[in-house]
C-alpha cells in the first residue's frame, strides 16, 4: 500500500513533456493512413478519367465517320432529245446511267485525270443507282432540260468506309459489292476532286432509310420524336411533380397514408423502366387506344418514369430550405401558401430545375420502355411527309433508332449507331449545361 | 440611470391596460406537458420579460401568443388566451390575421434572402398596407428608422439583407416586424446571437418600441431582463412561478425557486 503511493508520487513528478518536433509512432501511423487514403482517391479518379478518355476516344473514332458523306459532283446537261430517247427505252434508268458515266468521264478528262476510266458497272458499284436519281430529278423538273445542272450524288457506304480507313483492299477480294479495281477508280476520282468526303447534314436532319441504304440514314426524324416526347414529359411531369412535392412536403399531414405514398414514390424511382413500358402498352395503347409508336404515348410513359425522380429531388430541395425562412414569413403574417410560393419555392428552384433536367436527360436516353410501345424499328421514310412531325404521328426516338441501327447487319449501320450516340451525348451535355446555368442563375446565398 | 427609468415606468404600470391575458394554458408536445396552468396578464406599452432555465417553456409559451405553435404538428394548446378581449384560439380566428397584429422576432436573425427593401416591404405588401409605391417607400423608411437601422442602410436598400452584420440583420428583422404595424411584438432571445455592442443597440431599440407596442421578450440573461423590462415572468419546468414588477422580482423574489435562479443556483 505504502509502496504503491510511494511509486505513484515520483512517477507523477517525473512526467516529461513530449517534444512536438519528433513525430511519435501514433502520429506517423495516422499520417500514413491519411496519405494512403489520398492515394486511393487519386487512383480512383485516375481510373475513372482513363475510362472516360477511352470511351470518348472510341466513340469519336467510330462515330465521327457517320457525319461525313462521300459524294460525286458532276455538272450535267441533258437535252430534250436525250430525255425522250431514254424514256423510250425498256431499261430507262440504264440509259440515264450511260449519260452519267459519259459526263463523269468528260469531267475526269477535263480535270486531267483521263487515265481513270469509268464503266457503267463500276459506277453502279461505287455509287449505287444513280440512273434512277437522275431520272427522278428530270421527271420532276422537266423545265431544267437543256440547262446545266450540278448533281451531287452520294457514293455507296463501302466507298465511304474505304475513304475513312475502315475498309482495306484485302477485305474486298471476294466481294461482289465492291471490287479492288473499283478502289483505283475511287482514288482517281478523289485525286481529281470530283469525289469529295464532306460533312453530311443529312445524317442530322434526315430520316432513317431501309436496310439496303445505310448511306442515306439520318437521325432527324428520331430527334423530332425525342423532342416531342421531352415536350410531353416537361409539360406533364414538371407541374405534376412539383405540385405533388409541395403538397407532400409543406401541406400534407404526417400520417400512415402519407407515409405509404412516400414509400411508394421512393420505390417507383427504382422500378425498372421496362415495367413502365409494359404499363404504357397496357394502359395507353390497349386500354385508351392511343396510336402505337406515337411520341405522345412515349412521352406519357417517360412521364410516369420521370415523376418519382422529379418528386424526390424537388422534395429534397424544399427540405433544404432553412425552416427559419418559413418561420420568418409566417411571422410577418404570410399565409402558408404565401410563405411557400414567395419564399420557399424560389429558394428551392435551383434544386428543382436540376432534378427536372436530370430526370429529362434520363428519359431522353431511355430505350427499354420504347421497345414495348413500338417506337423502335419504325422507318420514318414510310411517313408521307418524310419527316415524322407530330405528337400522334408514328416515330422513333434517338436511343431507339441507335438500337435499331446497331441491330442491322451492314457494318455501315454500325458506324451510324456510333454517330447517333455522339448526337445523343451532345444533347445530354447540352441539357446538363442548361441545368448548371440555371443553377448558377437561381442560386442565392444566405 | 435604470432606477430613474423604473420609477418613471412604475407610476405608469398601474395605468396600463391589459393587452394579453392567458388563463389555464396547457401546452403538450405529444405526451410532453411543456406548459402547465399558466395564467398571466401582459400589459400594453411596456416590456415584459420571460426568464427561466433552458427548456422551461419560455419559447413555447411565447409561440402560443401568435399561434406559431400551429405549425408544429405534435403541439397541442389548451386554455384561453385573449388579446384585447378576443380569444385567439377561437375557431373563427385566422392565424394569419393574428400574426399581422402580433409580430415576432426570432432568436437567430432570419432576413429573407432578398434586398433590404423587399425584406421590410414584404409584410405591408401582403397585407395591402400601401396603395402605391411611394406609400410603400414611406412605410419602409419609417420601419427602418424605428428599428434604428435607417442611417446604416439607406444608401443600399437594394443590397441583400443577408449581407448585413448579425446585429444589423436582427434590427432589419425588427424593422420587418414593425412594418406591418403590429400591436404586440414578441421577441425570442433576440440578442443571443449578437455581440455586446449589437445587443446594446437592440436593447435601446426595445426601450423605444415600448412606447407604441406591448413587447414580450424571452431572454437568457437576467441582466438584460433587468435592463429592458418593467415586468418579469419567471418560468420553471413549465410552470409560471412568479410574475411581477421586474424590480421586485430581482430584489425581493417571493418564491424560493426564483431566488435560486436569480442568484445563480439553478439554471
Ligand atoms: N418543436 C418541439 N417539438 C417537441 N418538443 C418541443 C419542441 N419545442 C420545444 N419542445 C419541448 O418543450 C419544452 C420547452 O421548450 P422551450 O419552450 O423551447 O424552452 P425554452 O425556450 O424555455 O428554452 C422542452 O422540454 C422541449 O423539449
Ligand atoms: Mg427558447
TrEMBL record, chain A:
Keywords on record: Cell membrane, Membrane, Transmembrane, Transmembrane helix, Transport
Gene Ontology cellular component annotations, sorted alphabetically: plasma membrane
Protein name: Phosphate transport system permease protein PstA
SUPFAM superfamilies: MetI-like
Superkingdom per UniProt: Bacteria
Origin organism lineage: Bacteria, Pseudomonadati, Pseudomonadota, Alphaproteobacteria, Rhodobacterales
NCBIfam families: 3a0107s02c
Membrane topology: Multi-pass membrane protein
A GO biological process held by the record: phosphate ion transmembrane transport
Native source organism of the sequence: Roseivivax sediminis
TM helices/strands, residue ranges: 37-60, 227-248, 268-288, 294-312, 344-365, 417-438
TrEMBL record, chain B:
Lipid bilayer topology: Peripheral membrane protein
Keywords for the protein's UniProt record, in alphabetical order: ATP-binding, Cell membrane, Membrane, Nucleotide-binding, Phosphate transport, Translocase, Transport
Subcellular location: Cell inner membrane
GO CC annotations on file: plasma membrane
Swiss-Prot/TrEMBL GO biological process terms: phosphate ion transmembrane transport
PROSITE patterns in the record: ABC_TRANSPORTER_1, ABC_TRANSPORTER_2
Primary location class: membrane
CDD domains referenced in this protein's UniProt entry, alphabetically: ABC_PstB_phosphate_transporter
GO molecular function: ATP binding; ATP hydrolysis activity; phosphate transmembrane transporter activity
Pfam name, any one: ABC_tran
SUPFAM superfamilies (UniProt xref): P-loop containing nucleoside triphosphate hydrolases (SSF52540)
Domain named ABC transporter: residues: 20-262
Superkingdom of the organism of origin: Bacteria
Family matches, as InterPro entries: AAA+_ATPase, ABC_transporter-like_ATP-bd, ABC_transporter-like_CS, P-loop_NTPase, PstB-like
NCBIfam families listed in its UniProt record: 3a0107s01c2
Purpose of the protein: Part of the ABC transporter complex PstSACB involved in phosphate import. Responsible for energy coupling to the transport system.
Protein's UniProt name: Phosphate ABC transporter ATP-binding protein, PhoT family
Protein species of origin: Roseivivax sediminis
Amino acid at each position: 500500500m505504502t509502496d504503491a503511493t510511494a511509486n505513484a508520487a515520483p512517477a507523477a513528478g517525473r512526467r516529461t513533456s513530449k517534444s512536438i518536433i519528433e513525430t511519435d509512432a501514433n502520429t506517423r501511423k495516422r499520417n500514413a493512413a491519411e496519405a494512403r487514403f489520398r492515394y486511393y482517391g487519386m487512383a480512383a479518379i485516375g481510373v475513372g478519367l482513363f475510362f472516360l478518355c477511352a470511351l470518348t476516344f472510341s466513340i469519336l473514332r467510330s462515330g465521327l465517320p457517320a457525319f461525313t458523306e462521300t459524294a460525286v459532283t458532276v455538272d450535267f446537261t441533258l437535252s430534250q432529245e436525250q430525255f425522250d430517247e431514254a424514256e423510250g427505252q425498256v431499261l430507262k434508268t440504264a440509259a440515264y446511267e450511260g449519260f452519267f458515266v459519259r459526263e463523269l468521264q468528260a469531267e475526269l478528262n477535263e480535270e486531267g485525270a483521263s487515265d481513270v476510266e469509268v464503266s457503267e458497272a463500276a459506277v453502279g458499284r461505287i455509287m449505287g443507282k444513280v440512273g434512277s436519281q437522275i431520272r427522278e430529278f428530270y421527271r420532276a423538273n422537266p423545265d431544267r432540260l437543256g440547262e446545266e445542272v450540278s448533281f451531287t450524288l452520294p457514293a455507296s457506304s463501302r466507298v465511304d468506309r474505304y475513304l475513312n480507313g475502315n475498309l482495306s483492299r484485302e477485305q474486298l477480294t471476294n466481294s461482289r459489292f465492291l471490287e479492288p479495281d473499283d478502289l483505283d477508280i475511287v482514288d482517281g476520282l478523289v485525286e481529281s476532286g470530283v469525289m469529295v468526303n464532306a460533312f453530311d447534314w443529312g445524317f442530322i436532319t434526315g430520316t432513317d432509310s431501309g436496310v439496303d441504304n445505310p448511306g442515306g440514314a439520318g437521325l432527324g426524324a428520331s430527334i423530332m420524336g425525342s423532342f416531342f416526347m421531352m415536350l410531353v414529359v416537361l409539360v406533364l411531369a414538371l407541374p405534376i411533380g412539383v405540385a405533388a412535392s409541395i403538397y407532400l412536403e409543406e401541406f400534407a399531414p404526417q400520417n400512415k397514408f402519407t407515409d405509404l405514398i412516400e414509400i411508394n414514390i421512393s420505390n417507383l424511382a427504382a422500378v425498372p423502366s421496362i415495367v413502365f413500358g409494359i404499363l404504357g402498352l397496357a394502359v395507353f395503347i390497349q386500354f385508351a387506344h392511343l396510336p402505337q409508336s406515337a411520341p405522345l404515348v412515349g412521352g406519357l410513359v417517360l412521364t410516369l418514369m420521370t415523376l418519382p425522380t422529379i418528386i424526390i429531388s424537388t422534395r429534397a430541395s424544399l427540405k433544404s430550405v432553412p425552416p427559419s425562412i418559413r418561420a420568418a414569413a409566417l411571422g410577418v403574417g404570410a399565409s402558408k401558401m404565401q410563405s411557400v410560393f414567395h419564399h420557399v419555392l424560389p429558394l428551392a428552384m435551383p434544386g428543382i430545375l436540376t432534378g427536372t433536367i436530370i430526370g429529362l436527360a434520363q428519359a431522353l436516353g431511355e430505350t427499354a420502355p420504347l421497345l414495348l410501345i413500338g417506337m423502335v424499328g419504325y422507318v420514318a421514310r414510310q411517313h408521307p411527309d418524310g419527316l415524322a412531325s407530330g405528337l400522334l404521328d408514328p416515330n422513333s426516338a434517338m436511343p431507339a433508332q441507335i438500337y435499331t441501327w446497331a441491330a442491322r447487319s451492314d457494318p455501315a449501320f454500325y458506324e451510324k449507331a456510333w454517330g447517333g450516340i455522339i448526337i445523343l451525348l451532345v444533347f445530354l451535355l447540352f441539357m446538363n449545361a442548361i441545368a448548371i446555368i440555371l443553377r448558377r442563375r437561381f442560386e442565392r446565398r444566405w | 440611470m435604470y432606477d430613474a427609468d423604473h420609477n418613471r415606468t412604475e407610476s405608469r404600470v398601474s395605468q396600463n391596460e391589459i393587452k394579453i391575458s392567458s388563463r389555464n394554458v396547457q401546452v403538450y408536445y405529444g405526451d410532453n406537458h411543456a406548459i402547465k396552468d399558466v395564467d398571466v396578464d401582459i400589459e400594453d406599452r411596456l416590456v415584459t420579460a420571460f426568464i427561466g432555465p433552458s427548456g422551461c417553456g419560455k419559447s413555447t409559451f411565447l409561440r402560443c401568443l401568435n399561434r406559431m405553435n400551429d405549425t408544429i404538428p405534435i403541439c397541442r394548446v389548451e386554455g384561453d388566451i385573449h388579446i384585447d378581449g378576443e380569444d385567439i384560439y377561437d375557431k373563427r380566428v385566422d392565424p394569419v390575421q393574428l400574426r399581422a397584429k402580433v409580430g415576432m422576432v426570432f432568436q437567430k436573425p432570419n432576413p429573407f434572402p432578398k434586398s433590404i427593401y423587399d425584406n421590410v416591404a414584404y409584410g405591408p405588401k401582403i397585407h395591402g398596407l400601401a396603395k402605391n409605391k411611394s406609400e410603400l417607400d414611406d412605410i419602409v423608411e419609417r420601419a427602418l428608422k424605428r428599428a434604428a437601422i435607417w442611417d446604416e442602410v439607406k444608401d443600399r436598400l437594394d443590397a441583400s439583407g443577408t449581407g448585413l452584420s448579425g446585429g444589423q440583420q436582427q434590427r432589419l428583422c425588427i424593422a420587418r416586424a414593425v412594418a406591418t404595424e403590429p400591436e404586440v411584438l414578441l421577441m425570442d432571445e433576440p440578442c443571443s446571437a449578437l455581440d455586446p455592442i449589437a445587443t446594446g443597440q437592440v436593447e435601446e431599440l426595445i426601450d423605444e418600441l415600448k412606447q407604441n407596442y406591448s413587447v414580450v421578450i424571452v431572454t437568457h440573461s437576467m441582466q438584460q431582463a433587468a435592463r429592458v423590462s418593467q415586468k418579469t415572468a419567471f418560468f420553471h419546468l413549465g410552470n409560471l412561478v412568479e410574475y411581477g414588477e421586474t424590480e421586485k422580482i430581482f430584489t425581493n423574489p417571493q418564491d424560493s425557486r426564483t431566488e435560486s435562479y436569480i442568484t445563480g443556483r439553478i439554471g
